[in-house]
Write a structure and sequence with these properties.
alpha+beta, four-stranded antiparallel sheet, 9 helices, 27% helix, binds zinc ion
Length: 288
């Protein structure tokens, strides 16, 4: 799933490419993808895209006010695990089964919400731009992970008896981190994914806070290597995530992993768990 750095570079590139372009028509071939009814999707026709921004991992496409005094509109997009928001020079064939929302522009281009795989989970909601903040998906977000919130705020948010790995992915605690970048942040901070937030010493909170720079570094990396168009698969500068069995880039120890039903946690045992390799409990039970 695209996380904060990936969504940030996506909205930056799309904003540059599409600002000022007028909407000619809009449709939602993925019937379940459009979660709002009022205003209807047709309300964006004739408006210009004013830009794109990001709320945590969610892109927001903003449309100008119309001449008749109607308020600016915004499309809040949730990419879920397999959605992508992309601009194309040509219009999609209606047979493109990956299409969820199509915004056709007067200059012939098209902004498309596509979703790979068989599941339809990605969604979009159209609303007055001023309502975005109050939307339940936005209003419940914790502080953005990048730029990092003040350390006192981060400390308050994580002072909970929960493991760091799931807690940092909880968008209500801190917004923008998912399954890939949580491994990177914890590795950078040299903290165990299984340590509880409420157990952290002040010095460990400082390490966690400063480790959030990996998100900003990733954005800088994308700025350098990605051209005008964001590719389907981003060149993510990951050091430990999905690197089980490889040497830790910092100390050379073998990266270990714990496999869960839907995700995997990778860490350096030498630097993060005091030399202990944590067993995958579910798997070892199956193998008994
Ligand atoms: Zn290491």
């Amino acid at each position: 799933m695209p996380e904060l750095p990936e969504v940030e570079i996506t909205v930056r590139r799309l904003s540059t490419a599409l600002a000022g372009a007028e909407v000619e028509s809009a449709l939602a071939p993925g019937m379940v993808a459009l979660k709002s009814i009022d205003p209807p999707l047709e309300a964006i026709v004739g408006r210009a895209i004013s830009g794109l921004r990001r709320a945590a991992k969610m892109p927001v496409v903003e449309f100008d006010a119309t001449g008749d005094g109607t308020a600016p509109l915004a499309l809040l997009v949730h990419l879920m695990s397999a959605g992508r928001l992309q601009a194309f020079d040509k219009r999609a064939s209606l047979r493109d089964r990956a299409s969820r929302v199509l915004i056709r522009l007067a200059d012939g281009r098209e902004l498309r919400l596509r979703e790979f795989g068989t599941k339809q989970r990605a969604w979009a909601k159209l609303m007055p731009a001023a309502h975005i903040k109050a939307d339940e998906m936005v209003a419940t977000l914790g502080p953005e992970a990048w730029p990092a919130p003040p350390i006192e705020e981060l400390a308050r948010q994580i002072a909970q008896p929960r493991h760091l790995h799931p807690m940092l992915r909880d968008q209500r605690v801190v917004a923008g981190i998912g399954r890939s970048w949580v491994d990177e942040v914890l590795w950078e901070a040299a903290l165990s994914p299984f340590k509880q937030g409420s157990e952290l010493e002040p010095e460990e909170i400082e390490r966690l806070h400063s480790a959030l720079h990996v998100l900003g570094d990733a954005i800088d990396h994308y700025e350098e290597v990605i051209g005008d168009t964001v590719p389907d698969k981003l060149p993510m500068p990951l050091q430990v995530h999905r690197r089980e069995g490889e040497p830790c880039p910092r100390c050379g120890a073998t990266i270990a992993a714990v496999h869960f039903a839907e995700h995997i946690t990778c860490y350096c045992p030498e630097e993060q768990t005091g030399g202990r390799v944590l067993k995958d409990r579910r798997l070892s039970r199956l193998l008994k």
